[in-house]
Amino acid sequence: MKVYKKIMDVLAAAEKLILAASTLLILVLTVGNVFSRKVIHRSWSFTEELVVAVFVLITLMAAALACREGELVSLTLVTDRLPGKTKKPVVVLVTVLSVIFTVILFKYGMDKVLTQLANGKRTFVLNWPEWIFWSFVPIGSVCMILHFVEYCIDFCTDFKFVKRKEEA
Fold first, then answer.
1. Residues in CB range of 8: below 8 A, 6 or more apart
2. What span, in angstroms and rounded, lies between the C-alpha atoms of 79 and 83?
3. DSSP 34
4. How does the average pLDDT of the chain come out, rounded?
5. Residue partners of 133: CB distance under 8 A and separation at least 6
6. Residue 129: strand pairing partners
7. Which terms are listed as keywords in the entry (predicted)?
8. Lowest mean pLDDT: which of 34-48, 129-143, 147-161?
9. Which of 1, 106, 134, 162 could tie 141 with a disulfide, CB 3.0–4.6 Å?
10. What is the pLDDT, as a whole number, of residue 168?
11. What CA–CA distance (Å, rounded) separates 29 from 134?
12. 3-state secondary structure of 126
């Protein structure tokens, strides 16, 4: 279990790094484009393509990190009022349904990536292969699935509680 948690911690750290770099990239592109438009009177036409694609990446990475803490799909109004023995089955049910949804998202994302690879479709301004941007969907989906399962295991085994007790 400790090895598994270390692997998941490394994945979460990588996701946080991607989030930070992506946010910085969007900031630089957006501010640079505004500066260029207002001062130089030339717009950076490529920024829209990149910013939209990176926003998709940010959304999915942030959703994956939220899954890790059980914050993405949770209605605690109901589960907090349940008796202790019924909380675990509800969390398992929510995890199963969430994983099913995310597997569907992964499947459709991969279908789109494979179709764009086969067609050789490229973006309008940058002329980059579109599959690069669409690959963010299956990557984010895999991260979400891993973190859904991680949260469910942590909740059902009380791993975080045991870890906190050991640290004290």
1. 68, 146, 147, 150
2. 8
3. H
4. 89
5. 49, 53, 56, 123
6. 122
7. Cell inner membrane, Cell membrane, Membrane, Transmembrane, Transmembrane helix, Transport
8. 147-161
9. 106
10. 47
11. 20
12. coil
Amino acid 144: pLDDT:
95
Share of the chain above pLDDT 90, in %: 68
Contacts of 121 (CB under 8 A, 6+ apart): 129, 130, 131
Q: What is the pTM of this model?
A: 0.85
- Token pair for residue 26? 């969007």
Classified as helix, coil or strand, 146 is helix
Task: Provide the CB-side half-sphere exposure for 40 (13 A, CA).
Answer: 8
**Inter-residue contact 130 to 123 (CB < 8 Å):** yes
Cα distance between residue 47 and residue 32, in whole Å: 9
Which amino acid, one-letter code, is at 165? K
CA-based end-to-end distance of the chain: 20
Rounded to whole angstroms, how far apart are CA atoms 108 and 116? 12
User: Do residues 56 and 14 make contact, with C-beta atoms less than 8 angstroms apart?
Assistant: no
Q: Is the pLDDT of residue 80 over 50?
A: yes
Beta bridge partners of 122: 129
4, 81, 109, 140, 146 from 55: Cα distances, Å:
29, 36, 16, 12, 21
The pair of structure tokens assigned to 14 is 């990588």
pLDDT(160) > 70: no
Residues 6+ apart with CB under 8 A from 116: 129, 130, 131, 134
